[in-house]
Design brief:
heterodimer; A: 238 residues; alpha+beta; two-stranded antiparallel ribbon; 4 helices; B: 270 residues; mainly beta; five-stranded mixed β-sheet; 1 helix; 18 strands
Protein backbone atom coordinates (compact mmCIF):
# COMPACT_ATOMS: atom_id res chain seq x y z
CA UNK A 1 0.00 0.00 0.00
CA UNK A 2 2.59 2.49 1.12
CA UNK A 3 4.95 2.26 -1.88
CA UNK A 4 1.91 2.24 -4.19
CA UNK A 5 0.83 5.67 -3.02
CA UNK A 6 4.18 7.17 -3.81
CA UNK A 7 4.21 6.42 -7.55
CA UNK A 8 1.01 8.34 -8.38
CA UNK A 9 2.06 11.24 -6.16
CA UNK A 10 5.42 11.29 -7.89
CA UNK A 11 3.67 11.25 -11.25
CA UNK A 12 1.46 14.17 -10.30
CA UNK A 13 4.39 16.21 -9.02
CA UNK A 14 6.46 15.42 -12.11
CA UNK A 15 3.50 16.22 -14.31
CA UNK A 16 2.94 19.62 -12.72
CA UNK A 17 6.64 20.39 -12.98
CA UNK A 18 6.75 19.54 -16.66
CA UNK A 19 3.45 21.05 -17.69
CA UNK A 20 3.85 24.30 -15.81
CA UNK A 21 7.53 24.60 -15.02
CA UNK A 22 9.05 24.05 -18.46
CA UNK A 23 6.95 26.60 -20.34
CA UNK A 24 7.36 29.07 -17.49
CA UNK A 25 11.12 28.62 -17.49
CA UNK A 26 11.16 29.05 -21.26
CA UNK A 27 9.09 32.21 -21.04
CA UNK A 28 11.31 33.64 -18.33
CA UNK A 29 14.62 32.88 -20.00
CA UNK A 30 13.86 33.88 -23.58
CA UNK A 31 14.70 37.48 -24.53
CA UNK A 32 11.83 39.87 -23.87
CA UNK A 33 10.00 41.38 -26.78
CA UNK A 34 10.55 44.89 -25.49
CA UNK A 35 12.84 47.05 -23.42
CA UNK A 36 12.21 50.58 -22.27
CA UNK A 37 9.02 52.58 -22.74
CA UNK A 38 6.59 51.69 -25.54
CA UNK A 39 8.05 52.71 -28.88
CA UNK A 40 4.77 54.25 -30.00
CA UNK A 41 4.90 56.58 -27.01
CA UNK A 42 8.52 57.52 -27.64
CA UNK A 43 8.02 58.36 -31.28
CA UNK A 44 4.57 59.89 -30.94
CA UNK A 45 5.58 62.17 -28.08
CA UNK A 46 7.66 64.20 -30.42
CA UNK A 47 6.47 63.73 -33.95
CA UNK A 48 2.95 64.69 -32.95
CA UNK A 49 3.56 68.05 -31.32
CA UNK A 50 6.31 68.98 -33.71
CA UNK A 51 4.42 68.06 -36.83
CA UNK A 52 1.13 69.76 -36.19
CA UNK A 53 2.12 73.01 -34.51
CA UNK A 54 4.40 74.16 -37.28
CA UNK A 55 1.47 75.30 -39.39
CA UNK A 56 -0.62 76.01 -36.31
CA UNK A 57 1.91 78.10 -34.47
CA UNK A 58 2.88 79.96 -37.59
CA UNK A 59 -0.72 80.88 -37.90
CA UNK A 60 -1.06 81.87 -34.28
CA UNK A 61 1.27 84.80 -34.76
CA UNK A 62 -0.85 87.03 -36.92
CA UNK A 63 -4.09 85.39 -35.95
CA UNK A 64 -4.77 86.55 -32.35
CA UNK A 65 -5.14 90.11 -33.58
CA UNK A 66 -8.42 88.85 -34.99
CA UNK A 67 -9.69 89.22 -38.49
CA UNK A 68 -11.69 92.33 -37.91
CA UNK A 69 -13.60 93.15 -41.01
CA UNK A 70 -12.31 93.61 -44.48
CA UNK A 71 -10.44 96.82 -43.73
CA UNK A 72 -8.54 95.68 -40.67
CA UNK A 73 -7.29 92.27 -41.68
CA UNK A 74 -3.94 91.81 -39.95
CA UNK A 75 -1.41 90.94 -42.59
CA UNK A 76 1.76 89.07 -41.69
CA UNK A 77 5.19 90.26 -42.77
CA UNK A 78 6.15 88.83 -46.12
CA UNK A 79 9.41 87.32 -47.24
CA UNK A 80 10.11 86.51 -50.86
CA UNK A 81 12.85 84.72 -52.78
CA UNK A 82 13.70 84.09 -56.40
CA UNK A 83 11.49 81.37 -57.85
CA UNK A 84 14.30 79.83 -59.84
CA UNK A 85 14.77 76.06 -59.79
CA UNK A 86 16.87 75.13 -56.78
CA UNK A 87 18.61 72.01 -55.59
CA UNK A 88 18.40 71.48 -51.86
CA UNK A 89 21.72 70.55 -50.26
CA UNK A 90 21.70 66.95 -49.09
CA UNK A 91 23.45 65.48 -46.07
CA UNK A 92 26.02 62.76 -46.79
CA UNK A 93 24.44 59.31 -46.83
CA UNK A 94 25.20 56.85 -44.03
CA UNK A 95 27.59 54.06 -45.02
CA UNK A 96 28.14 51.96 -41.88
CA UNK A 97 26.13 50.93 -38.83
CA UNK A 98 27.88 49.73 -35.67
CA UNK A 99 26.26 48.51 -32.44
CA UNK A 100 29.20 47.30 -30.31
CA UNK A 101 27.05 45.72 -27.58
CA UNK A 102 25.37 43.45 -30.14
CA UNK A 103 28.32 42.86 -32.41
CA UNK A 104 26.53 44.56 -35.32
CA UNK A 105 28.92 46.12 -37.85
CA UNK A 106 27.34 46.39 -41.26
CA UNK A 107 27.69 48.43 -44.44
CA UNK A 108 24.70 50.62 -45.25
CA UNK A 109 23.08 51.12 -48.68
CA UNK A 110 20.68 53.93 -49.60
CA UNK A 111 17.33 52.36 -50.50
CA UNK A 112 13.83 53.46 -51.49
CA UNK A 113 10.57 51.62 -51.90
CA UNK A 114 9.44 48.53 -53.77
CA UNK A 115 6.63 48.70 -56.33
CA UNK A 116 4.30 47.30 -53.66
CA UNK A 117 5.12 50.21 -51.35
CA UNK A 118 7.28 48.27 -48.89
CA UNK A 119 10.64 49.69 -47.94
CA UNK A 120 13.42 48.18 -50.02
CA UNK A 121 15.79 45.99 -47.98
CA UNK A 122 19.20 44.98 -49.40
CA UNK A 123 19.12 41.42 -50.79
CA UNK A 124 22.45 40.74 -49.10
CA UNK A 125 21.54 40.07 -45.46
CA UNK A 126 24.95 41.29 -44.31
CA UNK A 127 24.00 44.80 -45.49
CA UNK A 128 21.56 47.31 -44.03
CA UNK A 129 19.30 49.71 -45.95
CA UNK A 130 18.86 53.39 -45.17
CA UNK A 131 15.51 54.89 -46.26
CA UNK A 132 16.89 57.63 -48.49
CA UNK A 133 13.60 59.52 -48.88
CA UNK A 134 13.55 60.27 -45.16
CA UNK A 135 16.09 62.15 -43.04
CA UNK A 136 19.73 61.05 -42.95
CA UNK A 137 21.28 60.29 -39.56
CA UNK A 138 22.45 63.65 -38.30
CA UNK A 139 19.64 65.65 -39.91
CA UNK A 140 18.26 68.31 -37.57
CA UNK A 141 14.76 66.90 -37.74
CA UNK A 142 12.97 63.58 -38.11
CA UNK A 143 13.70 59.88 -37.98
CA UNK A 144 16.48 58.23 -39.96
CA UNK A 145 15.42 54.65 -40.64
CA UNK A 146 17.87 51.76 -41.09
CA UNK A 147 16.48 48.30 -41.76
CA UNK A 148 17.93 44.89 -42.60
CA UNK A 149 16.89 41.29 -43.05
CA UNK A 150 17.05 39.19 -39.92
CA UNK A 151 17.92 36.11 -42.01
CA UNK A 152 17.65 34.47 -45.39
CA UNK A 153 16.99 30.87 -46.35
CA UNK A 154 20.26 30.65 -48.31
CA UNK A 155 22.47 33.26 -46.64
CA UNK A 156 21.67 32.43 -43.03
CA UNK A 157 21.51 35.03 -40.27
CA UNK A 158 21.55 38.71 -41.25
CA UNK A 159 23.48 41.64 -39.87
CA UNK A 160 20.40 42.82 -37.98
CA UNK A 161 19.66 39.44 -36.36
CA UNK A 162 20.94 40.48 -32.87
CA UNK A 163 18.57 43.46 -32.83
CA UNK A 164 15.98 41.63 -30.72
CA UNK A 165 18.50 41.56 -27.84
CA UNK A 166 19.08 45.34 -27.80
CA UNK A 167 18.95 46.94 -24.37
CA UNK A 168 18.06 50.48 -23.45
CA UNK A 169 21.31 52.41 -23.17
CA UNK A 170 23.16 50.52 -25.91
CA UNK A 171 25.26 52.83 -28.07
CA UNK A 172 24.85 52.98 -31.83
CA UNK A 173 27.29 54.57 -34.27
CA UNK A 174 26.56 55.58 -37.83
CA UNK A 175 29.33 56.63 -40.20
CA UNK A 176 28.54 58.66 -43.32
CA UNK A 177 30.01 58.94 -46.78
CA UNK A 178 31.91 62.11 -45.87
CA UNK A 179 33.66 60.37 -42.99
CA UNK A 180 31.54 61.97 -40.30
CA UNK A 181 29.81 59.93 -37.66
CA UNK A 182 26.90 60.23 -35.29
CA UNK A 183 26.43 58.46 -31.97
CA UNK A 184 23.09 57.38 -30.60
CA UNK A 185 21.74 55.78 -27.47
CA UNK A 186 18.90 53.27 -27.51
CA UNK A 187 15.82 54.51 -25.65
CA UNK A 188 13.34 51.76 -26.50
CA UNK A 189 12.92 48.40 -28.19
CA UNK A 190 9.61 46.77 -29.04
CA UNK A 191 8.19 44.00 -31.19
CA UNK A 192 5.12 44.86 -33.25
CA UNK A 193 2.94 42.65 -35.35
CA UNK A 194 3.47 43.88 -38.90
CA UNK A 195 -0.10 45.17 -39.10
CA UNK A 196 0.38 47.43 -36.09
CA UNK A 197 3.80 48.96 -36.68
CA UNK A 198 3.42 52.75 -36.25
CA UNK A 199 5.04 53.38 -39.64
CA UNK A 200 4.05 57.02 -40.01
CA UNK A 201 5.67 57.87 -36.67
CA UNK A 202 8.74 55.70 -37.25
CA UNK A 203 9.32 57.36 -40.63
CA UNK A 204 8.54 60.88 -39.33
CA UNK A 205 10.29 63.65 -41.25
CA UNK A 206 9.81 66.26 -38.59
CA UNK A 207 10.15 66.30 -34.85
CA UNK A 208 13.28 65.58 -32.84
CA UNK A 209 16.12 63.70 -34.54
CA UNK A 210 16.02 59.92 -34.06
CA UNK A 211 17.57 56.78 -35.35
CA UNK A 212 15.16 53.91 -35.96
CA UNK A 213 16.44 50.37 -36.55
CA UNK A 214 14.04 47.77 -37.91
CA UNK A 215 14.23 44.08 -38.69
CA UNK A 216 11.91 41.10 -38.52
CA UNK A 217 11.13 38.93 -35.55
CA UNK A 218 8.50 37.06 -33.64
CA UNK A 219 6.86 33.84 -34.79
CA UNK A 220 7.83 32.62 -38.25
CA UNK A 221 5.03 31.81 -40.65
CA UNK A 222 6.58 29.01 -42.69
CA UNK A 223 3.81 28.89 -45.29
CA UNK A 224 4.39 32.49 -46.40
CA UNK A 225 8.09 32.45 -45.50
CA UNK A 226 7.76 35.54 -43.40
CA UNK A 227 7.99 36.64 -39.80
CA UNK A 228 4.88 37.89 -38.08
CA UNK A 229 6.51 40.85 -36.34
CA UNK A 230 8.90 43.74 -36.75
CA UNK A 231 11.55 44.39 -34.13
CA UNK A 232 11.87 48.15 -33.73
CA UNK A 233 14.66 49.95 -31.88
CA UNK A 234 14.57 53.70 -31.32
CA UNK A 235 17.70 55.66 -30.42
CA UNK A 236 18.30 59.31 -29.67
CA UNK A 237 21.41 61.38 -30.29
CA UNK A 238 24.00 61.31 -27.52
CA UNK B 1 15.78 59.86 -67.08
CA UNK B 2 12.86 59.10 -64.79
CA UNK B 3 9.80 57.79 -66.55
CA UNK B 4 7.53 60.72 -66.13
CA UNK B 5 4.39 58.97 -67.19
CA UNK B 6 2.40 57.69 -64.31
CA UNK B 7 -1.04 58.83 -63.55
CA UNK B 8 -2.27 61.97 -65.13
CA UNK B 9 -4.13 63.19 -62.11
CA UNK B 10 -5.69 66.43 -63.06
CA UNK B 11 -6.55 67.42 -66.55
CA UNK B 12 -6.03 70.98 -67.49
CA UNK B 13 -8.39 73.05 -65.44
CA UNK B 14 -9.11 76.62 -66.23
CA UNK B 15 -8.30 79.63 -64.17
CA UNK B 16 -10.14 78.61 -61.06
CA UNK B 17 -13.28 80.51 -60.60
CA UNK B 18 -12.64 82.94 -57.80
CA UNK B 19 -13.93 81.43 -54.64
CA UNK B 20 -13.46 77.88 -55.80
CA UNK B 21 -10.66 77.06 -53.39
CA UNK B 22 -11.02 73.50 -52.28
CA UNK B 23 -10.60 73.19 -48.55
CA UNK B 24 -8.68 70.01 -47.73
CA UNK B 25 -10.20 67.62 -45.23
CA UNK B 26 -7.71 68.48 -42.51
CA UNK B 27 -8.65 72.13 -42.53
CA UNK B 28 -8.85 72.87 -38.85
CA UNK B 29 -7.20 76.23 -38.45
CA UNK B 30 -8.80 79.56 -39.12
CA UNK B 31 -6.09 80.38 -41.58
CA UNK B 32 -5.12 79.53 -45.10
CA UNK B 33 -1.68 79.11 -46.59
CA UNK B 34 -1.15 81.55 -49.42
CA UNK B 35 1.91 82.17 -51.57
CA UNK B 36 2.20 84.98 -54.08
CA UNK B 37 4.20 84.72 -57.30
CA UNK B 38 5.22 87.66 -59.44
CA UNK B 39 5.37 86.46 -63.03
CA UNK B 40 4.84 89.67 -64.97
CA UNK B 41 8.17 90.41 -66.66
CA UNK B 42 9.94 93.70 -66.09
CA UNK B 43 7.65 95.48 -63.64
CA UNK B 44 8.18 95.56 -59.86
CA UNK B 45 4.80 95.91 -58.14
CA UNK B 46 3.18 96.57 -54.80
CA UNK B 47 0.62 93.93 -53.84
CA UNK B 48 -2.45 95.07 -51.95
CA UNK B 49 -4.96 92.94 -50.08
CA UNK B 50 -8.22 94.59 -48.98
CA UNK B 51 -6.69 98.00 -49.56
CA UNK B 52 -3.64 97.30 -47.39
CA UNK B 53 -0.16 96.87 -48.74
CA UNK B 54 0.77 93.20 -48.42
CA UNK B 55 4.02 93.06 -50.38
CA UNK B 56 5.96 96.23 -51.24
CA UNK B 57 8.32 96.35 -54.20
CA UNK B 58 7.66 92.79 -55.28
CA UNK B 59 10.20 91.81 -57.95
CA UNK B 60 9.38 89.80 -61.10
CA UNK B 61 10.46 86.18 -60.81
CA UNK B 62 10.14 86.06 -57.05
CA UNK B 63 7.83 84.02 -54.87
CA UNK B 64 6.80 84.75 -51.31
CA UNK B 65 7.29 82.19 -48.61
CA UNK B 66 3.94 80.68 -47.62
CA UNK B 67 1.83 83.23 -45.72
CA UNK B 68 -0.67 82.21 -43.08
CA UNK B 69 -3.59 84.49 -43.86
CA UNK B 70 -6.81 84.63 -41.90
CA UNK B 71 -9.46 82.76 -43.84
CA UNK B 72 -11.85 85.10 -45.56
CA UNK B 73 -12.49 87.05 -48.71
CA UNK B 74 -9.83 89.24 -50.22
CA UNK B 75 -9.79 92.02 -52.77
CA UNK B 76 -6.39 91.73 -54.38
CA UNK B 77 -4.66 94.28 -56.57
CA UNK B 78 -1.21 95.01 -57.92
CA UNK B 79 0.11 98.50 -58.66
CA UNK B 80 3.38 99.61 -60.22
CA UNK B 81 5.86 99.74 -57.32
CA UNK B 82 5.78 103.02 -55.41
CA UNK B 83 2.57 104.35 -56.90
CA UNK B 84 -0.29 105.68 -54.79
CA UNK B 85 -3.19 103.22 -54.92
CA UNK B 86 -5.65 106.04 -54.27
CA UNK B 87 -4.84 107.79 -57.52
CA UNK B 88 -3.52 104.97 -59.67
CA UNK B 89 -5.31 102.34 -61.67
CA UNK B 90 -4.22 98.85 -60.59
CA UNK B 91 -2.17 96.92 -63.12
CA UNK B 92 -4.39 93.99 -62.31
CA UNK B 93 -6.96 93.16 -59.66
CA UNK B 94 -9.14 90.32 -58.45
CA UNK B 95 -12.03 91.00 -56.09
CA UNK B 96 -13.74 88.68 -53.64
CA UNK B 97 -11.11 85.98 -53.78
CA UNK B 98 -12.35 83.50 -51.21
CA UNK B 99 -9.62 81.89 -49.11
CA UNK B 100 -11.23 79.21 -46.93
CA UNK B 101 -9.61 77.89 -43.75
CA UNK B 102 -7.06 75.19 -44.40
CA UNK B 103 -6.66 75.92 -48.11
CA UNK B 104 -3.25 76.08 -49.71
CA UNK B 105 -3.22 78.50 -52.62
CA UNK B 106 -0.88 80.44 -54.84
CA UNK B 107 -1.87 83.79 -56.30
CA UNK B 108 0.03 84.37 -59.50
CA UNK B 109 0.42 87.79 -61.06
CA UNK B 110 1.15 87.00 -64.69
CA UNK B 111 0.35 87.86 -68.29
CA UNK B 112 -2.54 86.41 -70.21
CA UNK B 113 -1.90 84.76 -73.56
CA UNK B 114 -2.29 88.17 -75.24
CA UNK B 115 -0.04 89.99 -72.75
CA UNK B 116 -2.45 91.62 -70.26
CA UNK B 117 -1.46 91.47 -66.57
CA UNK B 118 -3.86 89.37 -64.50
CA UNK B 119 -4.12 87.82 -61.05
CA UNK B 120 -4.92 84.11 -61.03
CA UNK B 121 -5.52 82.16 -57.82
CA UNK B 122 -4.57 78.50 -57.98
CA UNK B 123 -5.39 75.80 -55.45
CA UNK B 124 -2.33 73.71 -54.60
CA UNK B 125 -2.87 69.99 -54.28
CA UNK B 126 -1.39 69.04 -50.91
CA UNK B 127 -2.76 65.50 -50.78
CA UNK B 128 -0.19 62.83 -49.98
CA UNK B 129 1.65 61.00 -52.76
CA UNK B 130 2.73 57.36 -52.38
CA UNK B 131 6.16 56.66 -50.88
CA UNK B 132 8.87 57.14 -53.49
CA UNK B 133 6.76 59.47 -55.62
CA UNK B 134 6.54 63.20 -56.26
CA UNK B 135 3.82 65.43 -57.66
CA UNK B 136 4.56 67.92 -60.41
CA UNK B 137 2.10 70.60 -61.44
CA UNK B 138 2.60 72.76 -64.53
CA UNK B 139 0.90 76.16 -64.93
CA UNK B 140 0.90 78.19 -68.13
CA UNK B 141 1.46 81.81 -67.07
CA UNK B 142 3.19 83.13 -70.18
CA UNK B 143 2.04 85.50 -72.92
CA UNK B 144 2.15 82.65 -75.38
CA UNK B 145 -0.13 80.22 -77.20
CA UNK B 146 -0.72 76.65 -76.03
CA UNK B 147 2.38 74.61 -75.20
CA UNK B 148 3.47 71.03 -74.60
CA UNK B 149 5.60 70.32 -71.55
CA UNK B 150 8.25 67.65 -72.03
CA UNK B 151 10.47 65.70 -69.69
CA UNK B 152 13.46 63.92 -71.15
CA UNK B 153 12.08 64.74 -74.61
CA UNK B 154 8.74 63.02 -73.96
CA UNK B 155 5.55 65.07 -73.86
CA UNK B 156 4.08 64.78 -70.38
CA UNK B 157 1.53 67.59 -70.58
CA UNK B 158 0.10 68.22 -74.03
CA UNK B 159 -1.62 71.35 -75.26
CA UNK B 160 -1.64 73.47 -72.10
CA UNK B 161 -3.15 76.95 -72.52
CA UNK B 162 -2.77 80.07 -70.38
CA UNK B 163 -3.80 80.06 -67.49
CA UNK B 164 -4.50 76.32 -67.26
CA UNK B 165 -2.63 73.82 -65.14
CA UNK B 166 -1.97 70.09 -65.23
CA UNK B 167 -0.70 67.82 -62.52
CA UNK B 168 0.77 64.34 -62.36
CA UNK B 169 2.41 62.03 -59.88
CA UNK B 170 5.65 60.37 -60.89
CA UNK B 171 8.74 58.71 -59.49
CA UNK B 172 10.90 61.13 -57.54
CA UNK B 173 14.13 62.24 -59.17
CA UNK B 174 15.62 64.83 -61.47
CA UNK B 175 14.13 65.38 -64.91
CA UNK B 176 15.26 67.52 -67.80
CA UNK B 177 12.20 69.57 -68.69
CA UNK B 178 11.44 71.89 -71.56
CA UNK B 179 8.44 73.66 -72.99
CA UNK B 180 7.62 73.60 -76.70
CA UNK B 181 4.89 75.23 -78.75
CA UNK B 182 2.02 72.76 -78.78
CA UNK B 183 2.40 70.08 -81.38
CA UNK B 184 5.85 71.25 -82.48
CA UNK B 185 9.49 70.77 -81.56
CA UNK B 186 10.05 74.53 -81.24
CA UNK B 187 11.53 74.95 -77.79
CA UNK B 188 10.20 78.01 -75.95
CA UNK B 189 11.78 77.40 -72.55
CA UNK B 190 14.59 75.19 -71.35
CA UNK B 191 15.67 72.52 -71.10
CA UNK B 192 16.13 72.91 -67.34
CA UNK B 193 16.88 70.30 -64.71
CA UNK B 194 14.00 69.98 -62.28
CA UNK B 195 14.42 68.18 -59.00
CA UNK B 196 11.22 66.42 -58.07
CA UNK B 197 11.93 65.63 -54.44
CA UNK B 198 10.19 62.60 -53.00
CA UNK B 199 7.07 63.40 -51.03
CA UNK B 200 6.79 66.96 -52.28
CA UNK B 201 4.76 68.89 -54.80
CA UNK B 202 6.77 70.85 -57.34
CA UNK B 203 4.80 73.55 -59.11
CA UNK B 204 6.36 74.83 -62.32
CA UNK B 205 5.21 78.11 -63.87
CA UNK B 206 6.04 78.90 -67.47
CA UNK B 207 6.03 82.69 -67.61
CA UNK B 208 7.26 85.72 -69.52
CA UNK B 209 6.62 87.19 -72.92
CA UNK B 210 8.18 87.11 -76.33
CA UNK B 211 9.87 90.49 -75.72
CA UNK B 212 11.10 89.78 -72.18
CA UNK B 213 11.88 86.12 -72.76
CA UNK B 214 10.29 83.03 -71.33
CA UNK B 215 11.40 81.23 -68.21
CA UNK B 216 10.39 78.80 -65.50
CA UNK B 217 9.49 79.63 -61.92
CA UNK B 218 9.41 76.83 -59.39
CA UNK B 219 7.47 76.49 -56.16
CA UNK B 220 8.02 73.51 -53.87
CA UNK B 221 5.38 72.41 -51.38
CA UNK B 222 6.60 69.97 -48.77
CA UNK B 223 4.81 67.60 -46.46
CA UNK B 224 2.91 65.52 -49.02
CA UNK B 225 4.95 62.38 -48.29
CA UNK B 226 3.75 58.95 -47.19
CA UNK B 227 5.66 56.34 -45.25
CA UNK B 228 6.44 52.94 -46.79
CA UNK B 229 3.66 50.39 -46.32
CA UNK B 230 5.88 47.96 -44.43
CA UNK B 231 9.35 46.65 -43.70
CA UNK B 232 9.89 43.04 -44.79
CA UNK B 233 12.89 41.57 -43.05
CA UNK B 234 13.51 37.83 -43.15
CA UNK B 235 12.63 34.62 -44.93
CA UNK B 236 14.30 31.70 -43.17
CA UNK B 237 12.73 31.51 -39.72
CA UNK B 238 16.10 31.00 -38.03
CA UNK B 239 15.02 33.26 -35.19
CA UNK B 240 11.46 31.98 -34.97
CA UNK B 241 10.12 32.96 -31.58
CA UNK B 242 7.21 30.50 -31.60
CA UNK B 243 7.16 28.10 -28.64
CA UNK B 244 9.91 25.53 -29.42
CA UNK B 245 8.90 21.90 -29.92
CA UNK B 246 10.86 20.52 -26.91
CA UNK B 247 8.98 22.88 -24.64
CA UNK B 248 5.66 21.80 -26.13
CA UNK B 249 6.72 18.15 -25.80
CA UNK B 250 7.77 18.51 -22.18
CA UNK B 251 4.51 20.23 -21.31
CA UNK B 252 2.46 17.48 -23.02
CA UNK B 253 4.48 14.79 -21.27
CA UNK B 254 3.85 16.55 -17.98
CA UNK B 255 0.13 16.62 -18.62
CA UNK B 256 0.11 12.88 -19.42
CA UNK B 257 2.04 12.14 -16.23
CA UNK B 258 -0.29 14.34 -14.27
CA UNK B 259 -3.30 12.55 -15.73
CA UNK B 260 -1.91 9.09 -15.03
CA UNK B 261 -0.96 9.99 -11.46
CA UNK B 262 -4.31 11.53 -10.76
CA UNK B 263 -6.14 8.48 -12.11
CA UNK B 264 -4.12 6.14 -9.98
CA UNK B 265 -4.72 8.27 -6.94
CA UNK B 266 -8.47 8.32 -7.42
CA UNK B 267 -8.44 4.59 -8.16
CA UNK B 268 -6.65 3.92 -4.84
CA UNK B 269 -8.98 6.11 -2.88
CA UNK B 270 -12.01 4.47 -4.41
Amino acid sequence: MRPGVRVPVLLVVLGVLLAVGVPTAWLLTRPGTSDGPPVAEVVASASGPAASPSPGLGAAGPDPAGSGGSSGVPLPPVTARPATPQVAPALPAPTRLVVPALGIDAPVDAVGVEPDGNMTIPEDVSRVGWYRFGPAPGAPEGSAVLAGHVDDAEQGLGAMSPLARTSVGDQVQVTDAAGGSTTWQVVAREEFSKQSVPLADLFARSGPPRLVLITCGGPFLADIRSYEDNVVVVAEPV
Amino acid sequence: MTPLRRTLVVGATGALALGAFAAPAFAAEDTATVSVLHAVPGVPVDVYANGEELIPDFQPGTLTDPLQLPAGTYDLAIYPAGSDPASTQPAASADDVSVPAGANATISAHLTADGTPVLTPYVNDTSAVPAGQARVTVRHNAAAPAVDVRAGGQVIVPDLSNPDEASLVTAAGTVSADVVLAGTDTVAIGPADLTLAEGTSTVVYAWGSEDAGYQLAVQTIEGTHSSPSGVPGGSAGLLDSSVPLPVVGAALLGMVALGLGARRLTAERG
